[in-house]
Amino acid sequence: MGCTNSVYKKKKKKIVPEISIFAPILRIPMHSDLQRLLRGFVPSDLADRIAAIRNQIALVGEDTGGSAVSDLIRALEQYLPLLLGLTKKEYGLQELVEFRWRELGEEREVRISKLISILFSSRKILELFLRVDDNDDDDDVDDDEQEICVSNSWFELLCVVHMMAMLTLMEANEKLIPKESSLSERLVSADCMRDAVDLLLKAAGYLNFCVLDVLPRLPQDLKSRLPSDMQDNVLEAISHQALAQGTELQLGLAVHSKNATLSVKRRLACEQLSFYAQAHCCLSDKNESNAVLKKQLFFLKWKHLEAKAAAYYYHSLILDKGTEPSCHLSAVCCVLAAEELLVESKKACLTFCLADPITRCPPPWGAMKHLQKKIPETAAKKTQMYTYLLDQEKGLKSLPELPEFQLSLKPDEYELPEADPAWGCGKFGFPEQTLKKHLDHDEKESKS
């Protein structure tokens, strides 16, 4: 642990981040004395391993701000087999340990540092601002709090897999933002885009596993009190969003491929639009006063408008291949709609970037870099070419409907690893002592 501390203690200078793949929130475990809590219930060497790896995750997450993605995912994968034994009903340990997690972000750090420097002598005011709750008898789950405390091992499993999903989204984002990228231009290689698609499918698989396999195991009263960003509909929204962005990357690859037909490009644009619509639908009844969800909704609106502009653009190109005057008129309607949607998407992008926490406006890249140039050019050209049709029809007719397609991308299937062999070895056994005796032992030890 000492080595880990020396490696990760130095933090990078904080800058306004640039977002291509949006990971709404990252939670990290808080340091805890699991050896004491597990004493007498599991062998000491197993308790030490569980505590050590969990505290390592907490340390690395805290000291790097979550930027050590590969190291954190590796540590979480090592922690899972150890954690799984606590979820086994036959061991009776599901509600023994109290697990604490907190949001990772600058807001809490800034608030604490200011309060300590100005009001460190006034505990009462400090507690008012930080909402310190000294009563730890009950599970503490509150949307307004950045810390969560729950005595349930399935909740711990939910948090671990959720963290793996968010880290995977962050890793996909890193793939799409080259270190040498400028503020005005971004060049992303095809290999990086393909790698990002794989990561997005993996993240969607983690989230689906949370919704289908973990949340149903939590007591109903606990599920109803989970933070809004860990509710099933929000997790589903992030999964759909990941699939939408995977499809967006596929469209970007198709745009630069000589073998991709207009039909393929239109299909990808329409599928992308459907995924974003599903994600937005999942959040339609959520409270927009929540800062995290508000930022996510702004992101979805922005990307939905971009996807719709792309879909109408490629639909217009296909309609224009028809021989009837009505086909050309419909094509003009579609490309003008795409141009208007493109303008609105730029406004939505700015709104997203200015929403808390502030992020940088990304330069055009991928499919949108191509479309931001082609849509206005094509709209001007087609309007001029078919002016006579517009005059004959006395304006534009109703906008044609976009075709619907079966969605191609599916989340990866995620399965939990096997429990650590230490949970099933022959010498393993639990002492016959009650929880009261276990706690009494701790109380006597603390007094001595």
List the helices and strands and how they pair.
Elements: H1 2-8, E1 27-29, H2 34-38, H3 44-64, H4 69-87, E2 99-103, H5 106-119, H6 123-130, E3 147-150, H7 153-175, H8 190-214, H9 220-224, H10 232-255, H11 262-282, H12 291-319, H13 325-354, H14 366-385, H15 387-393, H16 435-447
Antiparallel strand pairs: 1-2, 2-3
Helix pairs in contact: 3-4, 4-7, 5-6, 7-8, 8-10, 10-11, 10-14, 11-12, 12-13, 13-14
Family: Belongs to the BROX family.
Domain BRO1: 24-448
Protein name: BRO1 domain-containing protein
Overview of the structural elements:
The chain has 448 residues and is mainly alpha-helical. It is built from 16 helices and 3 strands. Helix 7 packs antiparallel against helix 8 (190-214). Mean pLDDT is 83; it is low at 106-137 and 432-437.
Q: What is the terminal-to-terminal distance?
A: 28 Å
Portion of residues within helices: 55-70%
Could you list the spans in which at least 5 consecutive residues all have pLDDT below 50?
106-137, 432-437
Beta strand % = under 5%
Q: What would the principal axes of the Cα set say about the shape? A: elongated
Order of helices and strands: HEHHHEHHEHHHHHHHHHH
Question: Quick check: average pLDDT?
Answer: 83
What Rg is obtained from the alpha carbons, in whole angstroms? 26 Å
- Largest β-sheet summary: 3 strands, antiparallel
Summing up helix and strand content along with how strands pair, one would put the structural category as mainly alpha
Side-by-side strand order of the widest sheet: 1-2-3
- By DSSP, the count of extended strands is 3
Number of helices: 16
Family: Belongs to the BROX family.
InterPro entries: BRO1_dom, BRO1_sf, BROX
Organism: Salvia divinorum (Maria pastora)
Protein name: BRO1 domain-containing protein
